[in-house]
Amino acid sequence: MMADDGENGAISEAEAALYDRQIRLWGLDAQRRLRASSVLISGLKGLGAEVAKNIVLSGVKAVTLLDHQQVTEEDFSSQFLVARADLGKNRAEASLDRTQNLNPNVKVTADTEDVKDKPDEFFTKFSVVCLTCCSQQTLRRVGHVCHDNGVKFYAGNVHGYCGYMFADLGEHDYVEEKPKIIKTDKQKEEGKEDGPAAKKAKVDTTETVMVKKTVSYCPWEESQAVDWTSDSRSKALKKTPQMYFIMKVLLRFREDHDRDPAVSSREEDKVALLRLRDDVLTEMKLKTDLVGDEFASHCFAALSPVCAVVGGVLAQEIVKAVSGKDAPLNNFFFFNGIDDSGMVDCIRSS
């Protein structure tokens, strides 16, 4: 195998050895697709650090770390890519060296501009765009740009014990490995698998076949515009993760305050969160007791264990999407650190 700079996804002998376990799991073609991909990670707090670590270790071609803010004391509880000496420095630049050292085969760059100031065309040069710590307006705009240009789009955040991930892969093709079905002679003769003869079909667990599938995703904006008073959605309301509605409250908090709830203003922010809970749910024509008061005490700081769980899922989904191997989640993953529960739900307006 010839050495290569990864431009076309070719893998050198050294890389084949480095990614041996992953290649055995996903296949060489999947690793080549990873090797040809470029990923933007915006927001380098605890969640962004977890995603960056996992994506760089997976063996993509390039990762861009984008963050215009500075390292704070709060970052040291979950952002392991920065050092104490980096306090006050730009968060993306401070994360660069440790991220690069994780895998020298991946080109890692830092961008210190604000994601909301980036032009639309900036996002179209990436294979995957992953936004964390962003406003609803930025998620809406960038989500549409990615959806319209075939760029895989992810978003997520962690607030204390609350975490979520969203995916929009547009029309996504993937392959899934399935056990081989051995047809009976009668089935082969009739060319069908239904009816009484189908009961005689056997599954060979020693052999597998690759099945190609397609799944359709909605843009971020559509996932936020659900009419919960419609018959179909009102019936599904009880099964919808409470974390979805908490996410909407936290996004409204960021919209109003241009920041997330902070430990330094904990009591003041708890009052604001409860008020916004009432406002958001009333606007959605839902009862305000759908989300209990206790949530307002659990939304502070990016807790390291929650970042690890959500960041691990988010990065794994990016790898699955880029490699085209196995069914990706569609479209939300929610994590509740209070009871250690995770839930996947497809939430869209249509």
Give the neighbour order of strands across the main sheet.
Answer: 3-2-1-4-5-6-9-10
What integer is the average pLDDT? 90
> Helix content range of the residues, please?
25-40%
- Proportion of residues in β-strands: 15-25%
- State the end-to-end distance: 48 Å
The secondary-structure class comes to alpha/beta
Sheet of most strands: 8 strands, mixed
Which parts are unreliable, with pLDDT below 50 for 5 consecutive residues or more?
1-7
User: Measured on Cα atoms, how large is the radius of gyration?
Assistant: 22 Å
What's the shape?
globular
User: What is the chain-wise order of helices and strands?
Assistant: HHHEHEHEHEHEEEHEHHHHHEE
Task: Give the total of beta strands.
Answer: 10
| Helix segment tally | 13
Layout of SSEs?
Layout: H1 13-18, H2 20-26, H3 28-35, E1 38-42, H4 46-58, E2 62-66, H5 91-102, E3 107-111, H6 120-123, E4 128-132, H7 136-149, E5 152-159, E6 162-168, E7 171-182, H8 185-190, E8 202-216, H9 220-224, H10 231-236, H11 242-257, H12 266-283, H13 304-323, E9 332-336, E10 341-345
Parallel strand pairs: 1-2, 1-4, 2-3, 4-5
Antiparallel strand pairs: 5-6, 6-9, 7-8, 9-10
Helix pairs in contact: 2-3, 4-5, 4-13, 11-12
